[in-house]
Design brief:
Layout lengths: L1 H23 L10 H4 L7 E2 H4 L3 H5 L1 H4 L6 E2 L21
Antiparallel strand pairs: 1-2
Length: 93
């Protein structure tokens, strides 16, 4: 009986410690796709259909499409996420 009680207390302690640690861990921010990830066909521009992979970009597509051609090129994009570099071979801007 004493062993059972000790085991139950140990398991309870481990579970409580895990729960406390989980609460202290802040949630990760959503991943922002890079230009290259959104440009799935590799033509150097992002179509409205390709932009649907990122709901925030999709919702603001018309705002960013400065020339109204239905595509976003690198220069029309909002500030890129950290580490996103201009892909080689982009469509002329």
């Amino acid at each position: 009986m004493k062993k059972l009680l000790t085991s139950v207390l140990m398991v309870s302690g481990v579970l409580m410690a895990a729960a406390v640690q989980a609460e202290d861990t802040p949630p990760k921010p959503p991943k922002i796709p890079t230009f290259g990830e959104l440009d799935t066909n590799g033509d150097g521009k992002i179509s409205r259909k390709e932009a649907e992979a990122d709901h925030m970009l999709s919702d603001r597509f018309s705002k960013f499409d400065e020339n109204g051609d239905g595509y976003l090129v690198w220069s029309e994009m909002p500030a890129p996420p950290a580490g996103d570099k201009k892909p080689k071979g982009l469509a002329s801007e």
